[in-house]
Amino acid sequence: MYCSDRWQSYELIDAGDGEKLERWNGYLIQRPDPQAVWPHDPWPRPDAVYLRSKSGGGSWRVNKQPPNNWHIRYDSTAGPLVFGLNLMGFKHTGLFPEQAANWEFAIDCIRKALLDGRQPRILNLFAYTGAASLACAAAGAAEVLHLDASKGMNNRARDNIERSGLTGKNIRLICDDAKKFVEREIRRGRTYDGIIMDPPAYGRGPSGELWTLEESLFELVTLSARLLSDKPLFFILNTYASALTPTVLANILNLVLASEKGGQAEADELCLLTTARSLILPCGATGRWRV
Fold first, then answer.
1. 50: nearest Cα among 5, 92, 3
2. Same domain (yes/no): 107, 22
3. What pLDDT score was predicted for residue 56?
4. CA distance 239 to 253
5. What is the DSSP letter of 281?
6. How far is the C-alpha of 233 from the C-alpha of 194, rounded, in Å?
7. Beta strand segments in the chain, E
8. From CA 192, how far away is CA 123, in angstroms rounded?
9. Which residues contact 82 (CB under 8 A, 6 or more apart)?
């Protein structure tokens, strides 16, 4: 398992009965989590709780307003990263703390490349609010191209760059459809030394067509892999689609990358540890390939 265990200002207190209780820089929230199928003892009253609707979606019940300029700090091995937080739709806060394990993996790959005199260029697809982009920039990547189809998410990423003191670190924010962008980059002849990909479970293409991750993932990885340089560093493939196990992600990366570029893929569950009792909460699957 890949456990994100360096957090100081985030805490997964407990999980159970389909819920989890978290502390985000002193602010206590309760959110649904379908993996937490075991029971739990009574919890303290949260500052905010996300309530699912029977008709789909849900909403926050706020018992205490979040602090002004609510944010959280992660002390990565490349330096401090600071992220703004909000009570967002679909139970989100603007950050996935379990992803810190992947940030550290990318940081390690980039730092080793710098020791060899290289200047890594990184592509972050479906980049959300930019946590992985910030980690790569803090590690010393020469360029980080951050791509998300949402202007709002890119604006939040820009704010996080400023909060983390990474303005001027050559992070390019692009708002575009991932597949269309990758196809254009292939035609331009541009390459990247590392690629990070965290596609949603389902969505719509640029022409409004519906697609599912299971049907589209292999093609998307194959296409994106054409952007890797002659001496690539890594490919990180993450998914929260419950139907895709870590073994599936490892198979995809080995089929697409290992046969042509060498190296070996590995994959496992991302996880967080609870502090109230000795539990491990699985938080999605990640595949990693490196030479």
1. 92
2. no
3. 79
4. 13
5. E
6. 5
7. 2-3, 10-16, 19-24, 27-32, 48-52, 58-62, 71-76, 79-84, 121-125, 143-148, 171-175, 194-197, 202-204, 210-212, 234-239, 264-273, 280-290
8. 6
9. 71, 72, 73, 74, 160, 163, 164
Element (H, E) at 112: helix 100-115
Residue 89 located in a structural domain: no
Residue recorded with tokens 């990180």? 236
Classify 244 as helix, strand or coil: coil
Q: Are residues 169 and 274 in the same domain?
A: yes
Please report whether residue 207 resides in a domain: yes
Q: Convert 179-191 to b/e letters by CB count within 10 Å (16 or more is b).
A: bebbeebeeeeeb
Residue 32 shares a structural domain with residue 167: no
Model pTM score: 0.96
Q: Burial code of 214-223, b = ≥16 C-beta within 10 A, e = fewer?
A: eeebeebbeb
Mean pLDDT throughout 165-190? 97
User: Could you tell me the CATH number of the domain that includes residue 40?
Assistant: 2.60.40.1180
| pLDDT level of residue 33 (50, 70, 90 thresholds) | very high
Tell me, what's the pLDDT at 208? 67
CA dihedral over 131, 124, 147, 217, signed as positive or negative: negative
Domain containing 103: what range? 96-290
Find the CATH number of the domain harbouring 103: 3.40.50.150
Segment 257-269 mean pLDDT:
93
The answer to whether 143 and 122 are in contact (CB under 8 A) is yes
Q: Give yes or no: residues 131 and 59 share one domain.
A: no
Domain boundary among 32, 56, 71: 71
Closest CA to 51 of 12, 94, 13, 90: 90
- 62-99 pLDDT, tens digit each: 999 999 999 999 999 999 999 999 999 999 999 999 99
